[in-house]
Amino acid sequence: MSVTLTTSEDALASARAVLATEARGIEALAAALDRHFLHAVEMLAAIGGRVVVSGMGKSGHVGRKIAATLASTGTPALFVHPAEASHGDLGMIVAGDAVLALSNSGETPELADLIAHSRRFGLPLLAMTREPGSALAQQADVTLLLPKVPEACPMGLAPTTSTTMQLALGDALAVALLSRRGFTAADFRQFHPGGKLGARLKRVRELMHGGDALPLVAPTTRMDAALLVMTEKHFGCLGVTDRGGKLIGVITDGDLRRAMGPDLLARTAGEIMTASPRSIGPEALAAEALHQMTDSIRPITALFVVAPADGAASGVPIGILHIHDLLRAGVA
Length: 332
Prior knowledge:
- By secondary structure, the chain is an alpha/beta fold.
- It folds into two domains: 2-183, Rossmann fold (3-Layer(aba) Sandwich), CATH 3.40.50; 204-329, CBS-domain, CATH 3.10.580.
- The protein has 15 helices and twelve strands.
- Strand 10, helix 14 (286-294) and strand 11 (302-306) form a beta-alpha-beta unit.
- Helix 1 (2-32) packs across helix 7 (161-181), helix 2 (35-46) crosses helix 7 and helix 3 (58-72) runs parallel beside helix 7.
- The longest helix is centred in the first third of the chain and has 31 residues, at 2-32.
- The radius of gyration is 29 Å and the shape is elongated.
- Mean pLDDT is 89; it is low at 1-5.
């Protein structure tokens, strides 16, 4: 039993040491960022083509992820394997492109043809390496240097800290370019239409019910008639609008329970309603609608969608969104 406990403690200690070493590498990387990083951002932002990412071995695996992150955040990018590049894939790299080459040592022989291709055709070359005097760094237009911190591997051989820093530096580059381009959530959604992320980036207008589906009554409507509308529309609530059509209140099941009494049906919607209800605009993200429905002391199951404040119909209900709509769309 004691041997198992010792083994478990050793494994945890080893894992924590790895994470601590890699965290120190990230901190050193952040501290080392300088004008070269700014030059890299400006260089990549200025190209009219794509960022062609390449690397061998573990650097190649990291490079694939960097290319994917760049592409999904508004910077067209692809990964080209350096060995395949030497056997025809150089034809994928054309005028207007830039090359981002990853090599911890900066001496990866498989990158030679790719580097030569970029020099021959005048393509911007960005290097990510640990060695400033390496062949890659010497040929590059801009070099992003990785700090010389130990690998987390106890033998100091397996790429661990170095690949973590490469990955983090790639993320920093992608996000800096995202900000530089003014990339918005709407732009982000174009590249992420599927899955939960795509659902959360849908607009409210894409999910809401409109037209005759809206459960609306005037404040003078008697509750016996108002309840018929509430039952017919199946949203579990009623919107109350003034003479100009603007939303001034809402009646929910909770309001009905609080107003329950022998005179309920003879009272008016204006007497029962909760004034100044929550609402949302049609261009808001579905994720924002979900937040409004759930992140409150009093959660709600339906939310009225009103016309934008800058229009003539400001405050007029144009739709309604139910929590079930968000569930069906995969938002919640």
